[in-house]
Specification:
- The model has no long low-confidence stretch (mean pLDDT about 95).
- It is built from six helices and 15 strands.
- Strands 1, 2, 3, 4, 5, 6 and 15 form a seven-stranded mixed sheet that branches. A six-stranded mixed sheet has the order 9-10-11-12-13-14, covered by helices on one side.
- Helix 5 (about 190-205) links the parallel strand 11 (about 180-185) and strand 12.
- It has a single domain, classed as Carbon-nitrogen hydrolase (Nitrilase/N-carbamoyl-D-aminoacid amidohydrolase, 4-Layer Sandwich), CATH 3.60.110.
- By secondary structure, it is an alpha/beta fold.
- Helices cover about 25% and strands about 25% of the residues.
- The protein has helices at about 20-40, 55-60, 70-80, 165-175, 190-205, 255-265; strands spanning about 5-15, 45, 85, 90-95, 100-105, 115-120, 125, 130-135, 145-150, 155, 180-185, 210-215, 230, 240, 245-255.
- The relative contact order is 0.16.
- The chain binds the ligand NC(=O)CCC(=O)C(=O)O.
């Protein structure tokens, strides 16, 4: 598809969550409607696990089939009603053989499912004096890369912990992506240290936009999300950032900046491939 425009308006919805799935989805739908009315975005993003508490003991109970489940159907309808792209955060997906995945769905303005990304790198960490979390206790990892086309612009999808894996971002860059979107929920141990750093690193290394959308912080929750949903530009500059609470972050991104940065700092033509190998890029 040809690039209709280089400017795209994004709205990142940093949403409050609770244990009530219907209320969480209703809140997301209300915020989508508000964002559309107030800001007329082309693309809306939601947080990781926006319809359920983020915790391994909850994933199976809250899981749904995609695209037949309740949350998918609501997001599809919202995209069509408002004529907008929706990167639907993540939900626990009930997959083949009863496996559960942490999955992002992407909806086109006609309500069609145009992308489904299962988190590839499960969040399994144990930091002394900090956080212990093991997604693999109940989740399975996805094995496929996911890119979508929005008005001729290729966008890669990753989920939270995926951002730590530079190889994945590099692969998206090599596949022609100009932006990577990560629904995410960093925590209060690693968030202050690594959240902005990782986004700016991925943007700088690959000369593309990086977008993250977090749940709002709830200090009483079992897992306290860091917040600070963010858009970083291809210069690795923070274009816009949320605070901790429920918030809509709106920004116009200019995709011509991607090409400008790649021309001005042409590292991808300066690789010493005679000294280090570059892997074959799998088709994505
Ligand atoms: N939900 C996640 O994958 C959390 C990742 C995270 O907090 C990190 O430090 O990495």
């Amino acid at each position: 598809m040809s690039k209709a425009s280089n400017i795209m308006r994004l709205a990142l919805l940093q949403l409050k969550g609770s244990k009530d799935k219907t209320a969480n989805v209703a809140n997301a739908l209300g915020q989508i409607e508000a964002a559309v009315k107030q800001h007329k975005p082309r693309l809306i993003t939601l947080p990781e696990c926006f319809n359920c508490p983020y915790g391994t003991k909850y994933f199976r109970e809250y899981s749904e089939r995609i695209p037949d489940g309740y949350t998918s159907q609501q997001l599809s309808k919202a995209a069509a009603d408002h004529q907008v792209y929706i990167v639907g955060g993540t939900i626990p997906e009930l997959g083949e053989n009863d496996a559960i995945y942490n999955t992002c769905t992407v909806w086109a303005p006609n309500g069609e499912l145009i992308g489904k990304h299962r988190k590839m790198h499960l969040f399994d960490i144990d930091v002394k004096g900090g956080i212990r979390f093991k997604e693999s206790e109940t989740l399975s990892a996805g094995n496929e890369f996911t890119t979508i086309d929005v008005d001729g612009h290729r966008i890669g999808i990753g989920i939270c912990y995926d951002i730590r894996f530079e190889e994945m971002a590099r692969l998206y860059r090599n596949a022609g992506c100009e932006m990577i979107i990560y629904p995410a929920a960093f925590n209060m141990t690693t968030g202050p240290l690594h959240w902005e750093l990782l986004q700016r690193a991925r943007a700088n290394d690959n000369q593309l936009y990086v977008v993250t959308t977090s749940p709002a912080r709830d200090s009483n929750a079992e897992y306290v999300a860091y917040g600070h949903s963010m858009i970083v530009d291809p210069w690795a500059k923070v274009l816009k950032s949320a605070s901790e609470g429920e918030e809509i972050v709106v920004a116009d991104v200019d995709f011509s900046l991607v090409e400008q940065v790649r021309q001005q700092i042409p590292v991808f033509n300066q690789r010493r491939v005679d000294l280090y190998s570059t892997k074959q890029v799998p088709k994505v």
